């Protein structure tokens, strides 16, 4: 038993120091006697004693050395067949020896296997070269690398996230353009031999088809500016908004293009694409965060020994990184102090702190309710007064009424984070949890304001208090084409958000930088300081704009193109602001943590955007005066109508897939798959725990060996003396 344990322990030690080596001397080297006292050896001895006793009872006893040799050789042979040698963490001589083994094995393969092996290598080499070429074609590659070198990976991740949104909106615009705009443009400008199909509405009162489009820009010059900022007037009946696509189909030579179905499918396509793209990118960050969910001692070690950002080349940013690491260590120690304080709390203190948190959370809910009510009242006031004649009010009054919901939303987004930051200090949380909870509240505030605006518009659209409203199914008098007017609100939010970002940069950040730089002797400006480039606040701003784009793309098909231009402008404005007017925040983010946080917030915004879109397409009656769905009660009705044109067998298949008889087994299968992956994740977690235990044993072994070496040196000196 002892000899087997000694040889097995020797194998384990050889594996650690001679990874993937085939030298047989390692397996036959006798262990040193005092090494049997190592903690790792004792742990292995206990485990193998249990395993060997169990194997003896089952009659499946196998020598550890033989089993390990067989397993190691098999793994290396398999890896040589499936992976590249450069993936091994070996020195050059070992890699050359493995390459010789590969070439020797190739001689004994058939010509077909040799051709497959060579073609696989050539294909992998081609893929690597293609990836290297595509890296040079990345958008803003040099700018982002320069920002990374000067300010670190945390701020670089923000600009990379902004680049991702530019590409996402560009792809969304291309989907809408190819599916909806291109057939209309080809027909309208006689590029192809096609014509529009206009089916007159049946069983619809003529009063519901009235759609007066105002064109007051011919009277006053400033009305052009108002139309450009609000989407009314000359912009209302353009390709920008839903009401312009009052077409039932496009007839080509060999087929009829169903524009209503294409319009709905384009919306589903860009939402599904956004969901898949975001989830795919967020999974990578989730894996890294899952790996980094280490113990507190390991967290300290990682910050001290592996916390440096080697992309930093600027001296000031290096000093900032030093202070950031000090801040993180202080925050970790503060969290440890708070955990100890929580453990030592009495029942009276616990009741007091939870009562205080309950009271403060009631204040937070009251602030949110007040903001939502203000947005609700501002939206109703704006909708009721925006139909006045343009000559009855001055330019500023008209613009204020048009942009009143946007102004209230912007003020709410500016004031509430300040209130939340003050409240969180009295709730007695750890510093890390304070940041996460404040960001979560701000995310909910920013994104919920858009939903409040949309639901307020929906309540006004469906509020029926007249005969005409009951006749058409919606408030036709105030909203003859309600989809276009919702698109105008989203358009105004998008434009106003861009105006605010530009105005803050030009009229707040730049003057503040000048005053702090050239009036530094004044104590007021010294206390004021430069504007911080806060990554979470900037991320929430662009996620807010992206959520507006997702909601508004159905009502304004060209809104993704506007969002693309907006984010391009924001990229250059933020880059100039970062380089010349702002200073990086002392609370820096890791790139992996930042990317996962950005995508998580973006995923929340996408889920909130899907809710009002689904309700508007499935519940609210479509306009009878404009748009491609004038012959349908709701937007979704185009789907069952299209299915009814399928052959009987295909209809039966579709109805079967959408029935409860298919949904219940499908749900059960999904649950089984989910349980399988949960069990697999649990097994992987246990393996991770075992590997961490092995690392701890290795560290204890090193301390033990150092202690023995020190004692041996001390004994040697005593003998010499």
Automatic annotation (TrEMBL):
* InterPro entries with a match to the protein in the record: TMC, TMC_dom
Organism annotation: Odocoileus virginianus
On the tree of life, the source organism's domain of life is Eukaryota
A GO CC term assigned to this protein in UniProt: plasma membrane
Where is this gene product found? Membrane
Q: How does it sit in the membrane?
A: Multi-pass membrane protein
Q: Which residues cross the membrane?
A: 161-186, 261-279, 358-379, 400-426, 438-458, 550-573, 594-615, 662-683
Q: Which family does it belong to?
A: Belongs to the TMC family.
Question: Could you cite one Gene Ontology molecular function of this protein?
Answer: mechanosensitive monoatomic ion channel activity
Q: What name does UniProt use for this protein? A: Transmembrane channel-like protein
Indicate where this protein is primarily found. Answer: membrane
Domain TMC per the UniProt entry, residue ranges: 481-592
Supply the alphabetized keyword list. Membrane, Transmembrane, Transmembrane helix
């Amino acid at each position: 038993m002892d000899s087997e344990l000694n040889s097995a322990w020797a194998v384990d030690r050889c594996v650690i120091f001679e990874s993937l080596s085939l030298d047989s001397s390692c397996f036959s080297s006798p262990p040193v006697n005092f090494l049997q006292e190592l903690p790792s050896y004792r742990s292995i001895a206990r485990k193998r004693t249990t395993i060997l006793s169990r194997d003896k009872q089952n009659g499946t006893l196998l020598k550890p050395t033989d089993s390990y040799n067989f397993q190691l050789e098999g793994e290396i042979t398999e890896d040589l067949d499936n992976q590249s040698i450069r993936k091994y963490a070996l020195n050059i001589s070992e890699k050359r020896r493995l390459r010789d083994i590969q070439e020797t094995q190739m001689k004994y393969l058939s010509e077909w296997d040799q051709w497959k092996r060579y073609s696989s290598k050539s294909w992998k080499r081609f893929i690597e070269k293609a990836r290297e070429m595509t890296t040079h074609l990345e958008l803003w590659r040099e700018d982002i690398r320069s920002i990374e070198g000067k300010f670190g990976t945390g701020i670089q991740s923000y600009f990379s996230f902004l680049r991702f949104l530019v590409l996402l909106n560009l792809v969304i615009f291309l989907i809408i353009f190819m599916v909806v705009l291109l057939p209309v443009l080809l027909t309208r400008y006689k590029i192809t031999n096609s014509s529009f199909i206009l089916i007159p509405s049946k069983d619809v009162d003529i009063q519901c088809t009235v759609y007066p489009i105002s064109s007051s820009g011919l009277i006053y010059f400033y009305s052009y500016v108002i139309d450009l900022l609000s989407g009314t007037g000359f912009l209302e009946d353009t390709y920008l908004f839903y009401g312009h696509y009052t077409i039932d189909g496009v007839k080509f030579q060999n087929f009829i293009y169903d524009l209503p179905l294409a319009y709905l499918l384009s919306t589903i396509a860009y939402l599904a694409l956004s969901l898949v793209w975001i989830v795919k990118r967020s999974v990578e960050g989730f894996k890294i965060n899952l790996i980094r969910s280490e113990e507190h001692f390991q967290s300290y070690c990682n910050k001290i020994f592996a916390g440096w950002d080697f992309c930093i080349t600027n001296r000031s940013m290096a000093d900032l990184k030093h202070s950031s690491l000090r801040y993180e260590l202080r925050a970790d120690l503060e969290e440890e102090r708070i955990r100890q304080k929580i453990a030592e709390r009495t029942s009276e203190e616990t009741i007091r702190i939870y009562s205080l948190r309950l009271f403060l959370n009631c204040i937070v809910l009251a602030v949110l309710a007040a903001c939502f009510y203000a947005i609700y009242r501002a939206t109703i006031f704006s909708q009721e007064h925006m139909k006045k004649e343009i000559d009855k009010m001055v330019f500023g009054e008209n613009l204020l009424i048009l942009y009143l919901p946007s102004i209230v939303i912007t003020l709410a987004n500016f004031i509430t984070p300040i209130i939340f930051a003050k409240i969180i200090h009295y709730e007695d949380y750890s510093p890390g949890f304070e940041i996460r909870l404040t960001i979560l509240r701000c995310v909910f505030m920013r994104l919920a304001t858009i939903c409040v605006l949309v639901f307020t518009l929906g309540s006004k659209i469906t509020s029926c208090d007249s005969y005409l409203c009951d006749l058409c199914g919606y408030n036709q008098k105030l909203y003859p084409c309600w989809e276009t007017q919702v698109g105008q609100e989203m358009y105004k939010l998008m434009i106003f958000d861009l105006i605010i970002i530009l105005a803050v940069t030009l009229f707040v950040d730049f003057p503040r930088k000048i005053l702090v730089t050239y009036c530094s002797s004044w104590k007021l400006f010294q206390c004021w300081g430069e504007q911080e480039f806060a990554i979470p606040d900037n991320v929430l701003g662009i996620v807010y704009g992206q959520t507006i784009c997702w909601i508004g793309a159905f009502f304004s098909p060209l809104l993704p193109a506007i969002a693309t231009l907006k984010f391009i402008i924001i990229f250059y404005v933020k880059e100039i602001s970062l380089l010349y007017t702002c200073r990086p925040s002392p609370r820096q983010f890791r790139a992996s943590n930042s990317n996962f946080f950005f995508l998580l917030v973006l995923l929340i915004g996408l889920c909130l955007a899907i809710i009002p879109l689904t309700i508007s397409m499935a519940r609210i009656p479509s306009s009878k005066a404009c748009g491609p769905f004038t012959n349908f009660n709701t937007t979704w009705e185009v789907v069952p109508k299209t299915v009814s044109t399928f052959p009987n067998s295909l209809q039966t298949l579709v109805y079967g897939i959408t029935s409860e008889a298919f949904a219940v087994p499908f749900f059960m299968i999904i649950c089984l798959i989910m349980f399988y992956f949960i069990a697999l994740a649990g097994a992987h977690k246990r393996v991770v725990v075992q590997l961490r235990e092995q690392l701890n044993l290795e560290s204890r072994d090193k301390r033990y060996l150092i202690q023995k070496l020190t004692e041996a040196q001390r004994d040697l000196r005593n003998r010499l003396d």
